[in-house]
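Support request from a user on the community tier.

User writes: "When I paste my C-alpha cells into the form, the page sometimes reloads and wipes my input. The last time it worked, I copied everything first. Here is what I submitted, just in case something in the input itself triggers the reload:"
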C-alpha cells in the first residue's frame, strides 16, 4: 500500500519534534500535527517559564543580601507584569524555533488536532491522511480531583496567565511542581500555604532530601499544612475559603492545585484502534516504545514511564535508532539525574537510601554532610546545604548522590556522568576538589553516618 507519509507524529513537543526532524534527515516522508503550541509543555508551560521565574525569585534574595557584600542598592519591589512580559517573549521565541527546525528538515506540519481512524489513517482537521508508522507523543496535562468547588482552582498552566500576584495563596500538593511554585510565589512576596496529604513533601525522594527541603521552606516563610485534606472550596466576597479535614478552614485569595498530571490521550482514537492503555490513560509500550498495534509507537509523558523532558528526548533518539538506523535501542532508565527547582533547589541521581537498603540490605555506607554555603555566611541567612552519598559496601560503587542547596542541579549533572561510568567511593576520594566550592564536599566525605537500623550494627 502507498501511504501519504512514512512517519506521522501526533504531538509537537520535545520528543515529537526530535523524532520528526531526525527521521526526516534519514529520508523519511514525515508530518507532525500539533493543535496547541510547538515545543510542548516544557517550553511553553513547564520547565522553561518556571525556571525563569525561579531565577527572578533568586534575584530578589540576592538584592536583599547585597548590602552584606558592600553594595548599596534600593529595592523598589518586584514588577510581576514586567517579568511575565519578558518570560512570555522568551517562550514565544523558543516555541517558534521548533517550527523552524521542522520546516528546515522538510517536515510537513499541521497546526490542528489529529485523531486516529485506524492503524494507518489519521484525521487532521477536515482531512484524512495515511502513514506507514504513527507516533503518539502528546505529553500530559495537569489533573484535578473531584471535590466541591474545584472549578475555582487553577493549575500550573493558569499560574502563568496571572495578571497580578495575590497577597495570599494556597497550593495543594507535595510534588515537584507544588514545591517549585511555592518557592517562587513565596520569594516574590506572596503568603503561601502548602497543603499536603503526607507527612512531608516530595514522596518518593530520599527521606533526608525531603526533610531538608521541608525545613528550609519553613525557614523561608512557607506554611506547610501536612497530613491535611481539602474537603471543599467555596467562593467568598474577598476570595476563597477551603474547608479542610477536621473542619478547619483557610481563607485565601487564590487556590492552585498541583496534585498530579494525566496523559493526553482523550479523544485520540487510541481505544477504537485497539491500542492498550493503563487505567490512568497512559499508552502501554514495550522497551522499544512499541504499542501492541505494530504500526503505532509512543514516547514521552504520554507513556507515563519517567516524565522528564530529557528522558522523552532519549526515548525519541532510541526510537529513531530502532526504526531508521537498524540499531534496535532501548532507553536506559538507570541513574538518570534530575532536579527540583525548589528554593533551595535539589539535584539527585541514583538510588535513595531506602531503595539501596531494599537492594543491598545492610551492606551500604551512607555519608551525610550539612553546612552553610559561603554566600550565606556573609549574608547572615540560616539556609544550609545538605549532601548525601550512598555506597555499596561490597563493591565500593556509588549508588546515589543527593544534594539540597544552591547550584544543586549544576553539581549533580556532572556527578551523573560519573555515576553512569560506575564511579566508586575510592575514585571520588582520589579526586581533587575545587576550593572553595560546595561541590568539593562530595569528594571529601570521609565519615560514615551510623546505621540507624539495630540489625545492621557491626
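"...and here is what came back when it finally went through:"
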Amino acid at each position: 500500500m502507498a501511504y501519504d507519509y512514512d512517519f506521522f507524529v501526533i504531538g509537537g513537543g520535545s520528543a515529537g519534534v526530535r523524532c520528526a526532524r531526525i527521521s526526516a534527515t534519514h529520508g523519511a516522508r514525515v508530518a507532525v500535527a500539533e493543535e496547541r503550541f510547538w515545543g510542548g509543555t516544557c517550553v511553553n508551560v513547564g520547565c522553561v517559564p518556571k525556571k525563569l521565574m525561579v531565577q527572578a525569585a533568586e534575584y530578589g534574595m540576592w538584592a536583599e543580601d547585597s548590602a552584606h557584600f558592600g553594595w548599596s542598592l534600593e529595592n523598589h519591589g518586584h514588577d510581576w507584569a514586567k517579568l511575565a512580559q519578558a518570560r512570555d517573549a522568551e517562550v514565544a521565541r523558543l516555541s517558534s524555533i521548533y517550527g523552524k527546525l521542522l520546516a528546515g528538515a522538510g517536515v510537513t506540519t499541521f497546526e490542528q488536532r489529529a485523531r486516529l481512524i485506524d492503524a494507518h489513517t489519521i484525521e487532521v482537521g477536515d482531512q484524512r491522511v495515511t502513514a506507514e508508522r504513527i507516533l503518539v507523543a502528546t505529553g500530559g496535562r495537569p489533573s484535578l480531583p473531584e471535590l466541591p468547588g474545584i472549578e475555582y482552582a487553577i493549575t500550573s498552566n493558569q499560574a502563568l496567565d496571572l495578571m497580578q500576584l495575590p497577597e495570599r495563596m494556597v497550593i495543594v500538593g507535595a510534588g515537584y511542581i507544588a514545591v517549585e511554585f511555592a518557592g517562587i510565589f513565596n520569594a516574590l512576596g506572596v503568603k503561601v500555604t502548602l497543603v499536603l496529604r503526607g507527612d512531608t513533601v516530595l514522596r518518593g525522594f530520599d527521606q533526608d532530601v525531603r526533610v531538608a527541603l521541608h525545613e528550609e521552606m519553613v525557614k523561608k516563610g512557607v506554611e506547610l499544612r501536612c497530613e491535611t485534606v481539602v474537603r471543599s472550596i467555596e467562593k467568598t466576597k474577598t476570595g476563597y475559603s477551603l474547608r479542610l479535614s477536621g473542619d478547619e478552614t483557610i481563607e485565601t485569595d487564590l487556590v492552585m492545585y498541583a496534585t498530579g498530571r494525566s496523559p493526553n490521550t482523550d479523544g485520540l482514537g487510541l481505544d477504537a484502534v485497539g491500542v492498550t492503555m493503563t487505567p490512568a490513560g497512559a499508552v502501554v509500550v514495550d522497551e522499544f516504545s512499541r504499542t501492541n498495534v505494530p504500526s503505532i509507537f509512543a514516547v514521552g509523558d504520554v507513556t507515563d514511564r519517567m516524565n522528564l523532558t530529557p528522558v522523552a528526548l532519549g526515548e525519541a533518539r532510541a526510537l529513531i535508532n530502532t526504526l531508521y538506523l537498524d540499531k534496535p535501542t532501548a532507553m536506559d532508565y538507570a541513574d538518570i539525574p534530575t532536579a527540583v527547582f525548589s528554593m533551595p533547589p535539589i539535584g539527585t541521581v541514583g538510588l535513595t537510601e531506602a531503595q539501596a537498603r531494599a537492594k543491598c540490605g545492610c551492606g551500604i555506607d551512607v555519608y551525610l554532610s550539612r553546612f552553610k554555603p559561603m554566600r550565606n555566611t556573609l549574608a547572615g541567612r540560616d539556609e544550609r546545604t545538605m549532601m548525601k552519598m550512598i555506597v555499596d559496601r561490597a563493591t565500593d560503587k556509588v549508588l546515589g548522590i543527593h544534594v539540597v542547596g544552591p547550584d544543586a542541579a549544576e553539581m549533580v549533572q556532572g556527578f551523573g556522568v560519573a555515576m553512569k561510568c560506575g564511579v566508586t567511593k575510592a575514585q571520588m576520594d582520589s579526586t581533587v576538589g575545587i576550593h572553595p566550592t560546595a561541590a568539593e564536599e562530595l569528594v571529601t566525605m570521609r565519615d560514615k553516618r551510623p546505621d540507624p537500623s539495630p540489625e545492621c550494627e557491626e
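Agent notes: The reload is a front-end session timeout and is unrelated to the input. The chain has 13 helices and 21 strands. The chain has three domains: 5-141+262-324, 150-259, 338-450. Escalated to web team.
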